[in-house]
Amino acid sequence: MGLRRWIQAIAVFLTNAYWKFPFTRNIYQGDLKVICAPGLNCYSCPAATSACPIGALQNFMATARTNFEAARYHVGLYVIGMLGLIGSLVGRMPCAWLCPFGLMQELIHKTPSPKFEIPKFLTYFKYVLLGLFVLILPFAAVDEFGYGVTWFCKYICPAGTLEAGLPMMALKPELRDLIGWLFYNKVIILMGFLLWMVLSRRPFCRVACPLGAIYSFFNRYSVFRMIHDPDKCTHCQACYLGCPMGVKFYEGPNQKDCIRCLKCLQQSCKFGAISYEIGKVETPQPAKNHL
Amino acid sequence: MEKTRTTPLVLMLVFSLLLVIGINLDEVQVVLEKATEICLSCIGIG
After folding, report:
1. Which candidate, A71, A19, A66, places its Cα nearest to that of A47?
2. What confidence tens digit (pLDDT) does each residue in A138-185 have?
3. Among A27, A43, A50, A51, which residue's beta carbon has the most beta carbons within 10 A?
4. Residue B42 — very low, low, confident or very high, per pLDDT cuts 50/70/90?
5. With contact defined as beta carbons under 8 Å apart, do A103 and A8 qualify?
6. Which of A26, A79, A168 sits opposite B43 (nearest CB)?
């Protein structure tokens, strides 16, 4: 198991370390939940020890109007600041190294099956979900009391269904009486993504993840950047064939869907055309098979 | 001598400032309160 897998596994454990939940039959309610996990991990997962930044952001948007009326200017600057700081340091790197849902997709994709590529136009959909379901609708679509709803969490997020919905139904039988079309709808979305994960590489990350969409804006401007040497590149497409996100590195480094897993650098490119720099300091290639 | 990239530094400064402002506005407590309640929306109920 390479270094990246170990770091992914540790990240899963650290963000889901509350293993008393089968006995308490409840979610973790301690102070560690002030920290927003850098990856997508539902805070209603019974094992979760951190908050979800996308859930938190939606909650701020949903209560913004009532907060403004009460002269409380809570718009999620804490969450935006945290995500922006991570993004400006490493871009979309948390997706490859720290996100439990990303790890799950990589593992499920190892299931033997015919494999299919995802059309590029679908990758823009995650920006629609970010703008509409995470930001605009929670803020704009309010009830008579001025409160909005967490649209992405409520209607779409398969991570929430898998990590929180299904386990909580098992832990708290009293919740099962409340199951309705909303739950079944989310389970259908989850099943669809699970199947898609078998057939395509990281489909949720590429098509639907609003957190990945936020980090992707920083790829071109972060301290950590990938470098492509066109003089050494032979356009053999090895980087694309091995990339968990289907990125064609030879078309340019630091594309929005590059999650900086470094697999292209470590395992794919035989011509030394790929490297990275940290703050303008170009680093030597890590030892082969290091990742 | 290569020119230092200022964009990442500016971004880090701006977002650090937002983070600090958010903490000072007590948004941290809001995050904690939401994250320690079972999110019925997240689990597909309400």
Report:
1. A19
2. 999 999 988 999 999 999 999 999 999 999 999 988 989 889 999 999
3. A43
4. confident
5. yes
6. A168
> Coil, helix or strand for B3?
coil
**Which residues make up the CATH 3.30.70.20 domain(s) of chain A?**
223-282
Q: Which two tokens stand for residue A19?
A: 């293993």
pTM: 0.93
Residue bearing tokens 């963000």: A15
Arithmetic mean of pLDDT, B36-46:
86
Q: From the candidates A34, A157, A162, which should be mutated to test the interface with B, based on the most B CB atoms within 10 A?
A: A34
CA distance linking residue A94 with residue A261, whole number of Å: 9
Q: What is the CATH number of domain A223-282?
A: 3.30.70.20
Is B1 within 8 Å of chain A by CB? no
What is the distance between the alpha carbons of residues A192 and A232, in angstroms, rounded to a whole number? 41
From residue B19, how far is each of A186, B16, B24, B27, B32 by CA, in Å? 33, 5, 9, 10, 15
ipTM of the complex: 0.92
What is the interface size between A and B, counted as CB pairs within 8 Å? 156
